[in-house]
Amino acid sequence: MASTKSATVNSRAVGVDIGGTGIKAGIVDLEAGELLSDRIKVPTPPGAEPKDVLTAVMTVLEKLGVADDDDVPLGVAFPAIVKNGRTLSAANVSQSWIGFEAEKFFEDGLGRSIHFANDADVAGIAEVRYGAAKGVDGLVILTTLGTGIGSAMIYDGVLIPNSELGHLQRAEHKRDAEGYAAYSAMEREELSWEKWAKRLQWYYDYVEFLFSPDLFVVGGGVSKHADEFLGFLSLKTPIVPAVHRNNAGIIGAASLAVSVPEAVSAVTA
Ligand code: BGC
């Protein structure tokens, strides 16, 4: 839903970040871009069917004590292409999300309006507003390395939504980049940091060649271990960890709930 409340009226909002393995939520101070509450986390229900995900989102809102408080804006981030409130893909969740009126489903189920967007895009928004990409001119590409690879492309502070760079492919790997280079691939194949970094080198080289960015920001839970793998990478583009690490999705979702950047409002309206 596109109605926008002013940041001067709302100094806090709730962000919910739905991921392939966990659903995280928190209350966010929108001036500082920091969590005001504990971070609540529940596992993503097996199969990630819409009704089960809705129940899990209700649980995190209850745990935060905001389930009945619709004065606090609510932003929800989801790991799929999100256009006009619909989810159009489903890489690490149930196929039922493809072509699904997800925003309406959550609004009906929660009995309140929400703002709904792609998880990596909102993490990018958090880093532009409050983190590693703040004030950076030109093209910033944030990638989240988790169950999949998410991407946010931000040019001069404006988000170009739904870039989906985790699904770049190269014939020799016979799978999407995320199947080869996400953090889940490292865990699944029990790779050392150095071996995983070789895969990241391929990935970032490829993205760098395609887009010539000015800055890469690395988000997702593994960004807290950035010291273990960023040093192995050799790129023309500076590459830094997300300041908000694994909270960028929560902070960005909350921030989006209050003030919608033009590029995002155009697709979520
Ligand atoms: C999805 C993206 C999402 C990323 C990170 C990918 O598989 O296609 O939409 O941003 O995972 O969750």
Number of helices: 9
Cα-atom radius of gyration: 17 Å
Low-confidence stretches: 2-8, 261-269
From the N-terminal CA to the C-terminal CA, the straight-line distance is: 6 Å
Give the domain tally.
Answer: 2
N to C succession of SSEs: EEEEHEEEHEHEEEHHHEHEHH
Q: Report the biggest beta sheet as strand number plus sense, adding barrel if it closes.
A: 6 strands, mixed
Task: Give the beta-strand count.
Answer: 13
CATH superfamily grouping of the largest domain: ATPase, nucleotide binding domain
- Helix-strand makeup class: alpha/beta
Proportion of residues in β-strands:
15-25%
The CATH topology of the largest domain turns out to be Nucleotidyltransferase, domain 5
Which CATH class of the largest domain applies here?
A: Alpha Beta
Please state the average pLDDT score: 92
**Can you name the CATH architecture of the largest domain?**
2-Layer Sandwich
Q: What compounds are bound to the protein?
A: beta-D-glucopyranose
Mass-distribution shape? globular
Helix content: 25-40%
Please give a structural write-up.
The protein has 269 residues and is an alpha/beta fold. It folds into 2 domains: 12-122 and 248-256, ATPase, nucleotide binding domain (Nucleotidyltransferase, domain 5, 2-Layer Sandwich), CATH 3.30.420.40; 136-242, Nucleotidyltransferase, domain 5 (2-Layer Sandwich). 33% of the residues lie in helices and 22% in strands. It has helices at 50-64, 102-110, 119-130, 177-181, 183-188, 193-211, 226-229, 248-258, 262-268, and strands at residues 12-18, 22-29, 34-35, 40-43, 74-78, 82-83, 86-87, 115-118, 139-145, 149-155, 158-160, 215-219, 239-241. The strands form 3 sheets. Strands 1, 2, 3, 4, 5 and 8 form a 6-stranded mixed β-sheet that branches. Strands 11-10-9-12-13 form a 5-stranded mixed β-sheet. Strand 10 (149-155) and strand 11 (158-160) form a beta hairpin. The longest helix is centred in the C-terminal third of the chain and has 19 residues, at 193-211. Bound molecules: beta-D-glucopyranose. Residues 19, 79-81, 89, 91-92, 118-120, 144, 146, 148, 150, 164, 166, 178 line the site of beta-D-glucopyranose.
